């Protein structure tokens, strides 16, 4: 769904009157609805649909969005917008671990913002912002760092992968990446975090850091955030290189970007890793082939998938035809987004309005949390 520009900023249409009233009540009130005293009231409001649960998620500004980002994360963002109080951001601080140049940094922030909007994120419904526009997040990151321990940070799978992949750049930002991510989530006291399968461990760490803070200050202050997907399981979209997930850091040939032209998609899929074909009927598929079938399951109708699955089982599959069909279905899936990217990408006024509005709304929520957190820790002004 795409909104006309004049409609995009009519915030009155964003929430129902009841939920808006309760949202403002909770924001403006000096009461904290999630602390132990008010927890029953908070649960009551949530259970009877009078208050919306809070959702946070972000994507690093390390390039353009690909099918993995879309099916693992953004597709859920779009669906969650109406039902939840949503904060979706561009994780630009997180992207500094790999030292982008100033030009690349800004360009990539813009890429993610444009892709978010083109996919259907709606600034009237959701708070869409750039992480570095909300300095309160760093303050919370500092407090959480005081209770994050070297051993547990070193054991994080993502940290170990990065150390293995890039042993010359094991910086402290990389080590404390899960703490910054916890601050992103806890700053708005979110309970649901739409992410792909690869982020599950980070969510577990966010719960650990939030609970540790609660115990230290003897308050049920931060609620527990959980990874969320409308699908039965968290999604993992495979890449085209025969192994592992689709990812920006895995190289351009491995990824289908939402902005890729039909020609680029056909070329990339035709070069995807395959083998010499099945050597017996109904044989188990090797990883590279299974990955292509998994991709087809995501973008193609069930009949198409079943057709090629039967051919594989009967040893009659022709990978050329299979890949052609896969590429065409990827083109159909990305077509509307590609068109909208072209519509938005040069509209700098609109992008600026979206980012400013988002920063304002995100800071309002973050400032409230930081004020309460400072009180809990014991800071007092003179
Ligand atoms: P990338 O892995 O391409 O660098 P990010 O780390 O910024 O992208 O990921 C942002 C979001 O997209 C996260 O919620 C992550 O789980 C999801 N995501 C990224 N790649 C995939 C994938 N291949 N399959 C499913 N979800 C993914
Ligand atoms: N760590 C996530 C990733 O690499 C991106 C991210 C940063 C994030 N902060 C977040 C996701 C907070 C959800 C919530 O994919």
Describe the structure.
The chain has helices spanning 17-28, 39-47, 67-80, 102-119, 136-145, 150-155, 157-165, 172-175, 177-186, 200-217, 262-270, 287-299, 302-313, 319-344, 348-377, and strands at 54-60, 85-91, 127-130, 192-194, 226-228. Mean pLDDT is 90; it is low at 1-35. The strands form 2 sheets. Strands 1-2-3 form a 3-stranded parallel sheet. It is built from 15 helices and 5 strands. The termini are far apart. Helices cover 52% and strands 6% of the residues. The longest helix has 30 residues, at 348-377. It folds into 2 domains: 11-237 and 346-377, 3-Layer(aba) Sandwich (Rossmann fold), CATH 3.40.50; 259-337, Tyrosyl-Transfer RNA Synthetase. By secondary structure, the chain is mainly alpha-helical. The chain binds adenosine-5'-diphosphate and tryptophan. The site of adenosine-5'-diphosphate has 19 residues, from β1 and α3.
């Amino acid at each position: 769904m795409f909104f006309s520009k004049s409609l995009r900023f009519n915030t009155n249409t964003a929430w129902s009157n009841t939920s808006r009233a309760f949202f403002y009540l909770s924001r403006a009130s000096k009461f904290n609805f999630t602390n132990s005293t008010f927890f029953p009231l908070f649960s009551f409001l949530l259970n009877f649909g009078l208050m919306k649960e809070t959702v946070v998620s972000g994507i690093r500004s390390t390039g353009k969005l690909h099918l993995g980002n879309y099916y693992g994360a953004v597709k859920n963002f779009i669906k969650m917008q109406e039902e939840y109080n949503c904060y979706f951001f561009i994780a630009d601080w997180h992207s500094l671990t790999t030292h982008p140049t100033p030009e690349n940094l800004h360009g990539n922030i813009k890429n993610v913002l444009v892709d978010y909007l083109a996919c259907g994120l709606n600034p009237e419904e959701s708070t869409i912002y750039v992480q570095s526009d909300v300095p309160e997040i760093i303050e919370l990151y500092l407090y959480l760092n005081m209770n994050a321990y070297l051993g547990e940070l070193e054991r994080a799978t993502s940290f170990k992968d990065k150390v293995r992949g890039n042993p010359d750049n094991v910086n402290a930002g990389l080590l404390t990446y899960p703490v910054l991510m916890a601050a992103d989530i806890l700053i708005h006291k979110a309970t649901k975090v739409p992410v792909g399968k690869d982020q599950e461990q980070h969510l577990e760490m966010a719960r650990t850091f939030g609970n540790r803070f609660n115990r230290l200050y003897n308050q049920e202050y931060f609620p527990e955030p959980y990874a969320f997907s409308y699908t039965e399981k968290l999604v993992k979209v495979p890449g085209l290189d025969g192994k592992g997930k689709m990812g920006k850091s895995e190289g351009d040939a491995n990824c289908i970007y939402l902005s890729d032209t039909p020609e680029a998609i056909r070329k990339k899929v035709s070069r995807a890793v395959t083998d010499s074909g099945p050597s017996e009927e109904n044989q188990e598929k090797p990883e590279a082939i299974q990955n292509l079938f998994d991709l087809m399951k995501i973008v193609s109708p069930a009949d198409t998938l079943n057709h090629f699955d039967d051919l594989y089982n009967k040893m009659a599959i022709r990978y050329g035809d299979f890949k052609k069909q896969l590429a065409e279905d990827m083109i159909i899936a990305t077509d509307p987004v590609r068109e909208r990217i072209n519509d938005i990408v040069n509209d700098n006024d609109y992008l600026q309005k979206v980012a400013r509005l988002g920063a304002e709304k995100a800071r309002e929520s973050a400032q409230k949390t930081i004020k309460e957190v400072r009180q809990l820790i014991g800071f007092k002004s003179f």
